[in-house]
Each structure stands twice: as structure tokens, then as C-alpha cells.
Write a structure and sequence with these properties.
mainly alpha; about 65% helix
């Protein structure tokens, strides 16, 4: 599948190993392109941080879940990245970490929520950031 496709990937054992059932429901709200991206991030994260806990792997899979609230497609996201948070939807896109953490607050554990927000172990956060740097 190309990066422009929104086709949903198959849910593998690897994904279900890291996501609690309620987290899986949140992950499933993401479009296919974002789901595939999150799987790629998880794979890279596990190479960089092979002793990752379930919560840390969940953060890799859920790091962009807050982007669903903006309702922006890939072109809108590119524009939002280039021009910044000038509209309500662009602001939501730029606040996706905090929005994602709030989406997960009642269904996930504190470590996953913190990592999605960008808080926690500096070593884990650095590995997540590098894994997401595509």
C-alpha cells in the first residue's frame, strides 16, 4: 500500500501484544495511513529500545492518535505543518499530543498517557522521537 492509501492494515499479534482492548478501540479510530505509520514507528522503536514495556509499545502505536480530532487529510496536514496553527483545525493538529493523551487518559495507564503527551523517561522519549522521524 502506498503512503497515500487509507486502507486499514491487518491487526497483527504484535499490535495486540502492546494494546489493551480499550486502547485498541482508540487506535482503530485512526485512518489506515496513520495506523500503518504507527506500526512502522513501533517496529523502529523496538529496534532502538528492545526492552520496551507494553505501555511503551502502546505509546509508539498511539503517539499520533490525537490527530484524528483535527479531521485533516494528508494535504491539510502538510499545509498545517507549513503554515502553523492559524485555524481551529490546524491548531488541533498541532496539539495532537495533548489531545491524544486526553483521549487515552481513561483507557490507558499513566506511562502510556505521559509518553504520548511527551513526558517520561528521556531515554524512551528519545527512542520514540527517533522512531517517528521518518
Amino acid at each position: 500500500m502506498g503512503s497515500f492509501s487509507n486502507a486499514k492494515p491487518e491487526i497483527s499479534i504484535e499490535i495486540s501484544r502492546f494494546l489493551l482492548p480499550a486502547e485498541m478501540n482508540v487506535w482503530l479510530t485512526m485512518v489506515g495511513r496513520d495506523q500503518r505509520h504507527s506500526i512502522d514507528v513501533l517496529k523502529r522503536f523496538l529496534v532502538l529500545y528492545p526492552d520496551a514495556s507494553r505501555a511503551q509499545g502502546a505509546a509508539a502505536l498511539l503517539h499520533d492518535v490525537g490527530k484524528v480530532q483535527s479531521g485533516l487529510g494528508w494535504l491539510g496536514r502538510i499545509v498545517a505543518t507549513l503554515i502553523g496553527p492559524r485555524t481551529d483545525r490546524f491548531r488541533l493538529y498541532h496539539q495532537h499530543e495533548e489531545i491524544g493523551a486526553e483521549m487515552l487518559r481513561s483507557v490507558s495507564d499513566a506511562e502510556t498517557v505521559g509518553l504520548v503527551r511527551g513526558e517520561g523517561s528521556a531515554q524512551v522519549l528519545a527512542a520514540l522521537l527517533e522512531a517517528d522521524n521518518i
